[in-house]
Amino acid sequence: MADTTATFHDLTGASVFITGGGSGIGADLTEGFLKQGAKVAFVQRSDASGFAEGMAEKHGVKPLFIQCDVTDIPKLQAAIEQASAAHGPVTVMVNNAANDQRHATLDVDEAFWDWSQDINLKSYFFGCQAAIRQMQQAGHGSIINISSISYMMGNAGYPAYTTANAGINGMTRSLAREFGPDKIRVNALAPGWVLTQKQLDMWADPEALAAHLERQCLKEHLVPQDMVDAVLFLASNASRMMTGQMMVVDGGVVTTG
C-alpha cells in the first residue's frame, strides 16, 4: 500500500464507512483512513477478514469488516447501522464498490442492465440514505461517491456502467442541495485510469497504456494513492465549503467547467 502524503487532523477518530473497502482501490482507502487515525468499517462481498487482520498487524487497529453484497440493500443499510453502533454515527461515507464489466449494447438484456445498475448506482443511493440518517444525528458529514471519467470521455464498451457513472453525478448534486442545511456535504470523485492490479492483469497492455498516457496532460500513470489523497481531502474539513462537485483526478484527460 502507498505512503501517507498529508495529515488531516480532523479525521482522527472519525467514523468512516467504505463500500468495497477490502480490495483494489477500496483497500487503499481503508488503509489511508486508518493512517489518519479514523475508525473504519467496510463491506466487501468476498471474505476480507485476512485483509482486516493484516491492517491490525500493520497499524495496531483493526477495521470492522462486514461481509455484504452491496446489491442486498437491507444488508447494506444494516451494515451501516452496525458500523454506527461500533464507532459512533457515521460521518464519512465512501461509495466505492463498483463493477465495470465490459459489454456490448446489443448483447445487454434486462437482467444484466438491472445487475449493473444495482451495483453501480442503486447501492450508492441507498448507502447514502442510510449514512445521511447517521450524519443528521452527528450534525455533520461528508459523502464521497466514486464515479469515473468514462462517461465524460464517451467511451464505448460498457454503456450500462457509464450510464450509472453519469447518474452518480446527478444524484450527488441533488443530495448536496437537499442535505446542505444539515451540514452534510456530498461530492463525487471521477478517477482516470488507475493502475490497480486488476487493470494491469486485464486491460493494461503496452499499447493501451501508451495511448492513454498520450491523452493525459501529466505524463505519469495514476496510482491508488492519488485517489486516497483526493478522498481524504473531500472527507476532511480542508474541503468544508465544497459540496455538489465532481472532482476529477485523471492526469488531465477530461476538463470540467
From TrEMBL:
InterPro entries: KR_dom, NAD(P)-bd_dom_sf, SDR_fam
Keyword Transferase: no
GO molecular-function term, one example from the UniProt record: 2-dehydro-3-deoxy-D-gluconate 5-dehydrogenase activity
UniProt keyword list: Oxidoreductase
Xref: Pfam families: adh_short_C2
Residue ranges annotated for the Ketoreductase domain, each copy included: 14-206
Documented EC number(s): 1.1.1.127
EC category: oxidoreductase
Family to which this protein belongs: Belongs to the short-chain dehydrogenases/reductases (SDR) family.
Protein name: 2-dehydro-3-deoxy-D-gluconate 5-dehydrogenase
Species whose genome carries this gene: Thalassovita autumnalis
Lineage summary: Bacteria, Pseudomonadati, Pseudomonadota, Alphaproteobacteria, Rhodobacterales
